Amino acid sequence: MKKILLVGKPNCGKSLLFNQLTGLRQKVANYPGVTVEIKSGAMGEYEVIDFPGTYSLSTMSIDEQVAVEQLTLRVNDDETELVVCVLDATRLERSLVFALQAQLLASKANKPIVYVLNFIDEVKRFGHDIDIDGLANELGAPVYALSARSLDGIAEFKNALLNAEYKNFNPLVPKIPLETTKEVVDFSRALAKTYAINKDVVLKNQNKVDNFLLNSLFGSFAFLAIMFVLFQSIFTWASPLMDGVETIIAGMAVFITQFTGQGVVTDFLNDAIFGGVGSFLVFVPQIMVLTFIIGLLEDSGYLARAALICHKPLSYFGLSGRSFIPYLSGHACAIPAIMAARTIESPRKRLITMMTIPLMSCSARLPVYALLVSVFIPSDVYWLGIFNLQGVTFFGLYMFGIVTALIISALLSRSSITDHEKSEMPFIIELPSYRLPHWKPLYHRVINSGVQFIKRAAPIIFMVAVGIWVLGYFPLNASLEESWLGSIGHFVEPIFAPLGLDWRYGIAILMSFLAREVFVGALGTLYGMEGADENIAGLAQNIMNDGLPLGTGIGLLLFYVVALQCVATVATLKAETGNSKLSWGLYAAYGVLAYILAFLANALI
């Protein structure tokens, strides 16, 4: 299949253009050892490959280096038909530096290149008109003006690619060979001076917003307010969706089990499938809401500002402003967040960030939080008469994890553990233009987050639920406490008794060391086997009826905030740091700290 390579600098609208060209016919992969997504999708007879954005072929990070190496290989591949380079029409000079380097790379491989001048709608809004033909002649390659957001020029561009119209382009001006970086930069400036929109016009409105959002006082309050709304929304916005999923699961259980009659099959379906796996599926909407909010912040351009705001306070704790993005990503999943820490300029700060990312409350903790919060915090109580107390509790749990991470970061930065990583580099970050997020890529991201979470967690939870059911169901006609599972639970019960937890919770906690979300599925199976058939998906109500003390519940929440209960995260830490002792040491240290906090909460509350 012929391939078209889609390249450009970050924040040039390349991914949105890719979505418009390929629609739903996409697949996502990662180059080994890097965090960036590599997307490919079909467009007619072509396969379009979306490369990660880079500012230059002269790389500064590991991710950029691998991406440029892969780009070089693909450009020289016989199957590659064309290179499409996306330019930001509002920041032409910055885009042209990488574009001219990409053009040189393509010409050496004897591959054609075309340019896409994106955000042309914004240029028109500012009352500017770019001489497309003149720019194309100067560059020696076709230039197509379009807007991936408003769809202006998209159909014409897609048709031009499918019909290979770029082959008919004959520039009037001979192409100037640019071999050195200085030549590229000088030519970029010359072209921008002639064709680009006035930077002052572009930055005028952006600076007005930045004067508020980046203000040391108002910007800090705005940041805290945005973060508060983020965590509040995880619970309040997702509640109707969660109720809907719970109703669907309960309805499916009643409908299916009416055909199986009484016996082993019905018990298995009720206890293991609808009680165990079903209890976990109820919380998937919260992962999708979290992804949606983070996507809004990222696509709007605010995340880069948040990193800038956080740089100074984070530096007090031995971190970098760039640590903010891995930290925020860690609220989705610690694994890509740890890998994303490679973009941090300082090796020492990078190591500290990776070591503390597991304290961010990832999406796997969401089912646990949602279950326990709904048990112990009333849903009809509002703080200050405005904010739902359950959402406030969620915010408190997330903030507790963040504060704990900052305290440990400060201790690590002053310890000998990171002494060998003390080389420093300056903090540099580009502030993208403020833009309204586009629904299509955001929609794909949200749906994909739910699908990927289910794919990753459901098989584990299914196996655990089936295993617990088998151990708890046999020997036949024995009670749950007298079953094989009950014997195991009573054996480990002394470990968890100081936390106020009985053998059932001990089993659920041990099982969740595979993955945190297993706790809900395991507990759902256990309570289902105790006769909760009439309330299959209502695990929270079953726990309420059990009378778990408030101190024990708070302790269990704190345990799950701190404990590193994810084998995959430990493996990622080992791969990134190259230190097995460090990774398992963190696993043990966070486990001990979590146990102490749960013990104190149970004893004092």
From TrEMBL:
Organism superkingdom: Bacteria
Annotated Gene3D superfamilies: P-loop containing nucleotide triphosphate hydrolases
Transmembrane domains' residue ranges: 212-235, 247-265, 272-297, 324-345, 366-386, 392-412, 457-476, 505-527, 548-572, 584-604
Membrane in keyword set: yes
Database matches in Pfam families: FeoB_C (PF07664), FeoB_N (PF02421), Gate (PF07670)
Domain FeoB-type G: 1-167
Keyword Ligase: no
InterPro entries the record matches: Fe2_transport_prot_B_C, FeoB_GTPase, G_FEOB_dom, Gate_dom, GTP-bd, P-loop_NTPase
Record keywords: Membrane, Transmembrane, Transmembrane helix
Name of the featured protein: Ferrous iron transport protein B
Originating organism: Psychrosphaera aquimarina
